[in-house]
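Our consortium's second objective concerns turning raw sequence data into structural hypotheses that experimental partners can test. To show how far this objective has progressed, the report includes one record in full. It was chosen at random from the queue rather than selected for favorable results. The single chain below, 124 residues long, was entered without modification.
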Amino acid sequence: MMQDVIFIHNLQLLASIGVFDWEKQLLQKLEVDVELLTDIRPAASSEQLHQTLDYAAISQRLMQLVQSQHHDLIETLAERMAACLLAEFNTPQVTLTLRKPGAVPAATTVGVRICRQRQEATLD
């Protein structure tokens, strides 16, 4: 099966994130890259948005998720973001990069990159 990719690169989000008390008092900038596997052929032939992954809706959903609560670790937030995308959008696989610029003074940015697949239901 052919797999195409819909991607969003460098989505800027403000989040309450971090383990230190001072980090819980302010919003910090995060940057997200998302790649979602899909088949774009139905949308390409029909030009119907409902037949593809709507990157505006995906971006909005990620913003809502990030702003819904404080997260101590970017690892936790990345897992929650990937799980949300797999559950709510028609994609079998998500690759997500989450960066926290300025977290380490000597580095431009730090972050995590994860790749998650939808778990198919198994019959017991």
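The partners drew two points from this record. The chain has three helices and four strands. The domain at 4-104 is CATH 3.30.1130.10 (GTP Cyclohydrolase I, domain 2). Both points have been shared with the crystallography group to help prioritize constructs.
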